Amino acid sequence: MMDHLETMFSPLKLGNITVMNRMAMAPMTRQRSTLDGVPTDLNVEHYRQRASAGLIVSEGIYPSFMGRGYLFTPGLHNDRQVLGWKRVTDAVHEAGGAIFGQIMHVGRLSDPLMLDGAQPVAPSAVQPDPTARHYTVNCPRPKRPYGVPRALTHAEVLAVIDEFRQSAVLAHKAGFDGVEIHAASGYLPMQFLSTNTNLRTDQWGGSVEKRAAFLLACVDEMIAATSPGFVAVKIAPGWTFHDVFDDDPVATYSHVVKELSKRGIAYLQLGNYGMDWDVYGTLRPLFDGPAMFVAGFTRQSAATAINNGDADMIGFGQAYIANPDLAERYRHGWDMTRPDISTYYTQGAEGYTDYPVYAETSPDKLQPVDAPPTPLSADTTG
Ligand SMILES: Cc1cc2nc3c(=O)[nH]c(=O)nc-3n(C[C@H](O)[C@H](O)[C@H](O)COP(=O)(O)O)c2cc1C
Questions:
Q1: pLDDT at 250
Q2: Any long-range contacts for 269-272 (C-beta under 8 Å, 24+ apart)?
Q3: Ligand 1 first shell, C-beta below 6 A
Q4: Partner residues linked to 254 by β-bridges
Q5: Which of the residues 62, 187, 345, 358 is marked catalytic?
Q6: Phi, psi dihedral angles at 292 (to 5 degrees)
Q7: Ligand 1 centroid from CA 155, angstroms
């Protein structure tokens, strides 16, 4: 192994566990569960194949029926889903890996067709840009504009926080090593954080402190129900994906990160999705604990960020779709397989469990290990 990769392949303490290397499989929605949100044999196999990542962060999992945004995505609010996830976590652990479950409530980005006719909920009744066209590539969500959501009452906000708490309890029961709150990509926690989607004048909106209160309450409740080392958070400061906007992302996220730092959480996943300001340099120093950076990393840039002491871990998304043995390929410098975007959100094994390990890949599918990463497009990100 080359010297500059040594730290990337060294262990790291992350909350209650120690992971064997600094490579994380980033969370990716792939829509291969049952219609009622139970993980399938395909899910078990997909995650088992990728267990040589130091940490797997699961695809987004809805903590309640109202948090569901897409067909065939998994949930974690009933016994069948817990049993389904237990099969996944057992398989990953038997293969020597570790796995956090990503808790994702989509809030206003759902649709009555997904919710038995109910209107999606949000901090405020602000409709996502109806002209925006996301997920044109095979994504099983209704192909029509997002509607106007219903603003949660104060009592309902407390009830949603309790759903997050309950999902941590069930994640523990399902054998996960921890949970990661998805507070990025314009989903519910980010709808509370962002100035264009949170117009509330009660304790959940207005100042930076009040906009951050929902996320921090979820963190506190999930910690109280489990332990600080069981809870992690993902943020994407300043990203406008799904039509969220923040008047002052540096102020908002400086507050959020400082508050998270006080709580001793397992790690902070920090995404820089093409911002024109230094997300990592501005926010990483405010967090006292392990930081995972994500989006657009290559083997080289990951090793550099880790060796510089900036990041403790790097999340790799699309590279993990097509390279189940990504850790081995990076360790040895073996060629990589490029993912097929057209099967990101289809059903079945194709493009999901049929990417072979390096030794079994036909040479015409391979590209050099340090080739540029697959660009992220608004059509394909979940
Ligand atoms: C198919 C697909 C699904 C995704 N789903 C999620 C998700 O459920 N939760 C999440 O936090 N990020 C999601 N993302 C974002 C990835 O976690 C990652 O941040 C992104 O792909 C950038 O990393 P990369 O450049 O290494 O691919 C998704 C990305 C892709 C390509």
A1: 98
A2: 269/24, 269/57, 269/180, 269/232, 269/233, 269/234, 269/235, 269/294, 269/315, 270/234, 270/235, 270/237, 270/294, 271/184, 271/234, 271/235, 271/236, 271/239, 271/295, 271/315, 272/236, 272/296
A3: 26-29, 59-60, 102, 104, 182, 184-185, 234, 271, 294-297, 316-319, 344, 373, 376, 380-382
A4: none
A5: 187
A6: -105, 125
A7: 32
CA distances from 217 to 16, 122, 288, 341 (A): 21, 16, 20, 37
Torsion-angle region of 186 (φ positive above 0: left; ψ -120 to 50: alpha; else: beta) = left
Is 187 annotated as catalytic? yes
Structural domains for the chain:
3-367 (3.20.20.70)
What's 376's DSSP letter?
P
pLDDT at 102: 98
The first and second tokens of residue 91, run together, are 């398989």
Q: Rounded to whole angstroms, what are the CA distances from 82 to 63, 87, 135, 318?
A: 11, 9, 28, 27
pLDDT for 267-317, tens place per residue?
999 999 999 999 999 999 999 999 999 999 999 999 999 999 999 999 999
Q: What is the pLDDT of residues 65-115, one digit of tens each?
A: 999 999 999 999 999 999 999 999 999 999 999 999 999 999 999 999 999
Arithmetic mean of pLDDT, 326-346: 95
